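User: Last request for today: this protein with 2-(butylsulfanyl)adenosine, please.
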Amino acid sequence: MSSERTAAGKRIEALRRELREHDYRYYVLAQPEISDAEYDRLLKELADLEERYPEFRAPDSPTQRVGGAPTREFPSVRHAVPMLSLANTYGEEEVLEFDRRVRSGLKGEGIRYVCELKFDGIAVSLIYRTGMLTRGATRGDGDEGDDITENLKTIRSIPLRLRGANSGWNDVEVRGEVFMAREDFEKMNAERARVGEKTFVNPRNSTAGTLKLQDPKLVARRPLQFSAYYLRAENKNLKSHFENLQTLRDLGFPVSRHTQRRDNIREVIGYWREWENKRESLPYDIDGIVVKVDSLAQQKKLGAIAKSPRWAIAFKFAARKRETILRNILLQVGRVGTITPVADLEPVFVGGTTVSRATLHNEDYIKELDIRPGDVVIVEKGGDVIPKVSGVVREKRKHGSKPFRMPDRCPECGSKISRPRDEANYYCENTECPAQIKARIEHFAHRGAMDIEGLGEAVVDQLVSLGFIRNYADLYELQARREELLGLERWGQKSVQNLLDAIEESKKNPLARVLFALGIRHVGASMAQLLARSFTIEAVIKASREELEQIEGVGPEIAESIVRFFQDSHNRDIVRRLAKSGLRFKEEGRRRSRSSAVSEKTFVLTGTLSTMTREEAKGKIEALGGHVTSSVSKKTDYVVVGSDAGSKLEKAKALGVQTLEEEEFLKLLNR
Ligand code: IVH
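Assistant: Here's the final one, the structure of the complex with 2-(butylsulfanyl)adenosine:
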């Protein structure tokens, strides 16, 4: 052998070792040491050398990832151990049931569970012989799958040879999920659209389609990733799934950093809740979690029924997106005359509830997405989000559908409607529009406002239509018309008395509730509390914009809206009548409300909390007399920091505002 060739052989070996190490740092440790350009330079040097000295070519060389020759058909291969699938569960009850079955199968033995993310991708099996990747296959029917070795070799996060493999790792099977990150998927789709190729529906379909390609060179160009979740090794005494995952990392496989071992099913449910809230923060899609019994001996004892193991289960999240038919676009008239388009949907189960109405925001939104009655639409519902129509499935549009047009008259009273400049909404200009009157009274009686039991939508509708009430001051004068009420359809002694009692009882509500119930634009429940703490109602009525803006949390828009409301003589008249009826217009014991560590304090919430939603946290703070605002300022007392907190945390640090971790926040609430 010439010395030149010997040197080339050595260099080739060194380059391969170096490239493998970089792959490992990049894909497993997520700590790359060199730039992509530098990596490509090393790879090119290796490829050139292998070109010059073909005798050194090797199937596990990093150069082999660019994709080999096309195949016409994938050979079928048999899995040594069947690839099972998981039973699905959707609710806590079913998961508790799973736990009971596991425990009864193990009769009092201690159990630990491993919680993993359930990747929304494609399961594959990888076989390593004497440390080298020799076969990669799809799951197929669980017993037999397709041999897609050449395609899988193009995935850079799948090691072509086991890391540090020497002693005894001869016969190894690794299973895991191939998937695509959302952003990579979108980039790829945009590029396909640009060159006129067909686009994929979602990352999972795109992954499945890619793995089926017969030309590995095409596969090599698609952004596929791999995450391992199963190890089988002959002649190794493996004991725990969780430990196997660590071994997989050591062998050079990417394994999710979010996998955790939990001591009981309650904690498993906690993990599920946490990820139900946080799933959006991941760069790829997950559709639930997978719960596995940790001990391999226990797994064996539990065994499998049909195609599913008894020792593992998929605990899925409710789909947050579903397709359904948009039956019609309704127009809802709100209490200040705002006309909001609402989707009337074929009922669909999404995000944990059945949805038949969803917001369409405003005219511009409908136009932008070109949403038409009769369309198949996508309905989305996140954790605490109101359902919304987020898109149209154009391919399913029926012939003859027409774009939506806003009418020029109020659907309720027929008066002209108009859209002020710089606003997205249309308004019905008739303040006596029955729909507005009803909406105002419904709001007034609502649980969060005056909480008048028995005064729901149907009753308000009846009383307004028959002319008994035209505004909420009329409610407190109903007492005098009890005989007339008794003559109405559906009303008897008892129901009339209950309603009148509930109205009477509502007079005891504190000022903050009254202020909220008035329905002043921009004055929500917590703003009403702020106002009530600072002013009596007479003072609010007389307050100038400037005086109102003195209150922390009151901006120019809110101040303007309050002033406008009380400038209206009709509103002033109603308020006067409410006062005469005996509603509370002064805050008793003002500023002496039960003081807690939270009361009177201003909070900003950022990031995701694991024990509650932000909406829940807000409710708790407000119940204790604190306020929640959306942006951090010097007047902010605390910034509550959940996981994946963003710029608000930085702002808090910059301004020296005290930050609270979730645990500290919980302590404060309980103090
Ligand atoms: S374990 C018996 N772990 O879910 C064990 N599967 O129905 C079965 N999946 O085909 C596989 N993430 O495509 C496992 N962390 C995870 C997973 C996972 C996603 C998929 C996989 C499998 C299906 C099971």
